[in-house]
């Protein structure tokens, strides 16, 4: 399945990285019988057996940190050491290297030992000769380029640079005292004849920790379980709503156009290909221009051939770029990375469309829709502001949750839009596209300001010496535009921001919404004698900012919980795929009975044990938890025994999952060797 035979060390690392992700949370009260795992040498995908969780130098949870070796092809500097050391089994012929742990400290010279107070090891878990060679929770950067590694000298301890950003569950189970916290463990590293000493305060694991020997799905976290999820929500897979949203995004991202029916769309534009229109293309004879940019525009999804990532291309029809000095502003926009703006990646000119066109490349957010299409696409919403003929009665004003948007949603939009403006203004730029047709909404409430930087290029004046001189004026215009957007949302109609309807719109806001929202709109729309800042509206937002932060973090908790349900699915799929390549193979190496003999026969019976169970009445017994549990035990190779019954019920074989794993690995390696031509 992996396409090539892997070494034992690589398989060990990949196995533990895929099988025991999120080990914190294991060891539930329902599984007290499982002990710590130990890696057995000599197996292809290391089998597991019971062992002491701490004192074993080959404990599986810490086996990735158990031993280190240094390549002898060339001398390595201390700078390279922290980024190029990789994890393998101990190599007696390797250059001398002193990792963390007590056993290696015995090699320290006596003169060096006497320079430090005795004893060196203050924690009892580190004084044993069988202590782990590298403390859990510590890692060395593997695979990084030495050119990007930090400079490490005896004056800067390497220990903090080695700490993994992923917390280790063992670190949370170590009792700490004042003496432990005050103590320092002296570590030594010898590279190329130079010896480095540094201190390390990483706690050692407490003896007696027990983890399951194979992956077990933990229950839902209580802070998510008590969020009152929807009735009949799936508990074993991610929520259907989130799944459908992701599927729709994937479909839009992979959508392609039929060029035979759309000959006007070029196959390639600069370094982009696979163009797909994201909005209806303007007719060839169209003469009217858009109200926003005063130019005819069109939008495409395209894939960049340099990185194979999808981007959104905004084309300005018939625009000839005279001077490239405006690229200074484009470079400023490219540096802005914010969660509520669509990042500008590049700007280029092209003749691929048959004319001189200017193209802006932005990040592509699949499934996004504009605020205009989400909230202002209903003509009936403007009826309250429509002039009545003589004799017609004016309809009653709309109410919140009955024609108007809830105030909490409007404040959520205000927080995001003001945050985007704050970042843009701090960078010395102006948004200039604060318009419902240029604000994208993804999901339920996530906003992103689109088409930033377009006006800066289209209206660039080459005669000005200071091209940022007008930015303060544009920033003031951004605040007025923000006020109009908020007023339109409060009225749920774009007609409310027209000059003749402003008084009626503000009365509607006063009746249905809080005074803070009314004051914010008045402050943004009223001309001030002094320059205003987006920070001025923060007191009006007040504690509502914390409400939005809390909602965002709760949403993050729910998504993480959904991710946790699916995190092991890839590993289980690979197991099933490998098992499927072995079972019922018609012929292998000119042997038609290959899949029915030897180790393959055991795997065939195990397949029946997985999928073909029946009840006492002879009806199919279908239990997904049984399938998942058995596959996890096979992947870990636990010593648990199972009974495999032949289809004629004349043979019963009692085997362990460890035996099945050995048969499984050797058989699949045999197939891999034949596929690669090694046999």
TrEMBL record:
Any coiled-coil ranges, and where?
543-581
Its biological purpose is as follows: Regulatory subunit of the poly(A)-nuclease (PAN) deadenylation complex, one of two cytoplasmic mRNA deadenylases involved in general and miRNA-mediated mRNA turnover. PAN specifically shortens poly(A) tails of RNA and the activity is stimulated by poly(A)-binding protein (PABP). PAN deadenylation is followed by rapid degradation of the shortened mRNA tails by the CCR4-NOT complex. Enhances PAN2 deadenylase activity and has an extensive effect on mRNA stability, generally enhancing mRNA decay across the transcriptome by multiple pathways, including the AU-rich element (ARE)-mediated pathway, microRNA-mediated pathway and the nonsense-mediated pathway (NMD). Its activity is required for efficient P-body formation. May be involved in regulating mRNAs of genes involved in cell cycle progression and cell proliferation.
Q: Where in the cell is it found?
A: Cytoplasm, P-body; Nucleus
Spell out the residue ranges making up region: Disordered: 141-169
In the UniProt record, does the keyword Acetylation occur? no
Q: Where is the Pan3 C-terminal knob domain?
A: 534-671
One example of a Gene Ontology biological process annotation: mRNA processing
Source species, please? Amphilophus citrinellus (Midas cichlid)
Gene Ontology CC terms: nucleus; P-body; PAN complex
State the similarity comment: Belongs to the protein kinase superfamily. PAN3 family.
Q: Which domain of life is it from?
A: Eukaryota
Question: What quaternary arrangement does the UniProt entry report?
Answer: Interacts with PAN2. Interacts (via N-terminus) with PABPC1 at lower efficiency than isoform 3.
Q: Which residues are noted in the entry as ATP-binding?
A: 314, 363-370, 437-438
Give the encoding gene's name: PAN3
Going by the UniProt record, its keywords in alphabetical order are: ATP-binding, Coiled coil, Cytoplasm, Metal-binding, mRNA processing, Nucleotide-binding, Zinc, Zinc-finger
Question: Which intervals of the chain are annotated as region Knob domain?
Answer: 582-679
Known Pfam families for this protein?
Pan3_CK
Q: Name one GO molecular function term.
A: zinc ion binding
What does the record's free text say on domains?
A: The N-terminal zinc finger binds to poly(A) RNA. Contains a pseudokinase domain. The protein kinase domain is predicted to be catalytically inactive because some of the residues important for catalytic activity are substituted and it lacks the equivalent of the binding site for a peptide substrate. However, it has retained an ATP-binding site and ATP-binding is required for mRNA degradation, stimulating the activity of the PAN2 nuclease in vitro.
Name of the featured protein: PAN2-PAN3 deadenylation complex subunit PAN3
Q: Which InterPro entries match?
A: Kinase-like_dom_sf, PAN3, Pan3_CK
Quote the Gene3D superfamilies the UniProt record gives. Answer: 1.10.287.3700, 1.20.5.5160, Transferase(Phosphotransferase) domain 1 (1.10.510.10)
